[in-house]
Amino acid sequence: MIVRDWLVAVTSLSWLIYYLKPTRELFPKPIAFLSTISFEIYLVHHPLVFGEFAWIHRGDGSAFFVGLEVLLTMCFVVLASWLLHLLSDTLSECVTKIVS
């Protein structure tokens, strides 16, 4: 639940920053990257937050360990989402070549 709320907050803030005209030149690449893999982020984060593979489910951890788990989960989700995006692009190109 924490990771999902954090991702929603970060995405919302990134879009707000993107639409502010003075900073438009500073952040377009990271926001475009996250926008490109947003569906994959949803697919990958869901089992890590809610499923049996959830990393963040301890109630006895200190704030440091919870923060570390959130940070590691976010890094893993973005990396796995990017790899899933590359895989889906490769597969769609192969299918397009086979069909045409």
Radius of gyration: 17 Å
Q: Stretches where pLDDT falls below 50 for ≥5 residues?
A: none
Nearest-integer average pLDDT: 76
| Class by SSE composition | mainly alpha
What's the overall geometry? flat
Distance N to C terminus: 44 Å
Work out the helix count.
Answer: 4
Give the tally of β-strands.
0
Helix content: over 70%
Helix and strand element order: HHHH
Largest sheet: none
Quick synopsis:
This protein is 77% helix and 0% strand.
Account of the protein in words:
The chain is mostly helical and 100 residues long. Helix content is 77%, strand content 0%. The chain has four helices and no strands. The longest helix has 37 residues, at 63-99. It is flat and about 55 Å long. The chain starts with a helix and ends with a helix.
List the helices and strands and how they pair.
Blueprint: H1 2-19, H2 28-36, H3 38-50, H4 63-99
Quickly list its features.
mainly alpha, 100 residues, flat, 4 helices, 0% strand
